[in-house]
Amino acid sequence: MNIENKKQFATIALAVGLGLTAAFLMSQYVKSSIENQTKALAKDYEKKAAAQTAALRKEMEIKNRELQKQMQAMAKQQQQALAQQLANLPKGGGVKATTGVPTQIVDSTVFASITPPGKRAITLLIDSLSAVGGLVNPGDYVDILGELEIPHPQDPQEKPIEITSVLFQNVQVLAVNANFKPVGSALVYQQQQKSRALNVTLAVDPEEAGLITFAQKYGKLKLALRSPAEKETKALQVAAWDSLADYVLDKQGTELNLPKAKAPSRVENDYVEEDLQVDDTPFVEIFRGGREL
C-alpha cells in the first residue's frame, strides 16, 4: 500500500470514528432531554392533581356546610310543627322525647286516636295467604272466617269436630304490621306477599276481642276482603256438607248424594250406633227446570 492510499484510509477511519462519537453524544443528549421533559411533566401533573384535589375538598366542605344548614332548618321546622301539634292537643296528649337532639315532642296517642270510639284494637298474627294474599291495607273492612276444632259433644276423648264459619263481619283494619296509614302501593303489597306472616290490627267490640282470642286459640283465622261500599251483614250458616249440598242444589241444580247420618239407640244405658240405609256410593244427580235428567 502506497502512502497516498494510507492517507485516504486514515481519513476514512477518522471520519467514521467522529461519526460514531457524534451519534453517541447525540443519543446521550436525546436521552437526557427526554428524562428532563418526563420529570417536568410529572411535576406539572402532580401540581395539577394536587390543585384538583384541593378544589374538590373545598367543594365538598362547602356542600357539607350547606347540607348541615338545610338539616338544621328542617329539624327546626319539624320541631315547630310538632310543638304546634302539641299545642292543639289536650293536656297530657304528648311526652317529650329524650333520645335525640334536637329535642322533639312525640305524640303518644297517634295510634290510639285512630281507634274508633267503643272499639278495641287487637292484633292477630295471620299468614300472608290467609290475609287476602297480603293485599290487605289499613282502612279496609274484612270478614273473619274461622276453621275451628270443636270438642266431641259425647266423648271429649274423640277426635274434635272441624267446622268452618264466618265469625265476624265488617271489621275495620287499623294497621298492617307497623303501617297504620293507607298506602295502596304495589311495592308494599309485594313485600306483604313475600312475608310469611302479617300482624293485622283490627277494631272490634270489647266482647269480640275476647271471642277472637278464644277462636284463634282453638283454630285458624282467615280474612275475606269486603267492598268499601258494602256495610250490611248477613245471617250465614256454618259451612258443612249439608249446607254445601243445599247451596249447590239451589244455585247449580246439582244434587250431591251424601251418606246419611247414623242414629244412636239406647241399649243398657249405652248408646249404640245403628246404620240407617247408608249408601257410601257417591253420585251426582242433574236437575234442569226442576226435573231430573
Question: Could you describe the 3D structure shown?
Answer:
Helix content is 42%, strand content 26%. The protein is built from 5 helices and 12 strands. Strands 3-6-5-4-7 form a 5-stranded antiparallel β-sheet, covered by helices on one side. Strands 8-11-12 form a 3-stranded antiparallel β-sheet. Strands 1-2 form a two-stranded antiparallel ribbon. Strand 11 and strand 12 form a beta hairpin.
Query: Quick one: biggest sheet?
Result: 5 strands, antiparallel
Distance from N terminus to C terminus (CA atoms, Å) equals: 141 Å
Order of strands side by side in the largest beta sheet? 3-6-5-4-7
Query: Which structural class should the secondary elements be placed in?
Result: alpha+beta
Annotation, overall tally of beta strands? 12
If helices are DSSP runs of H or I spanning 4 or more residues, what is the number of helices? 5
Mean pLDDT: 77
- Count of individual domains: 3
How would you describe the shape? Answer: elongated
Low-confidence stretches: 92-108, 265-278
- Element order, helices and strands? HEEHEEEHEHEHEEEEE
Oligomeric status of the shown chains? single chain
Q: Any idea what the radius of gyration is?
A: 45 Å
Describe what is shown at a glance.
The protein is α+β, with helices and mostly antiparallel strands.
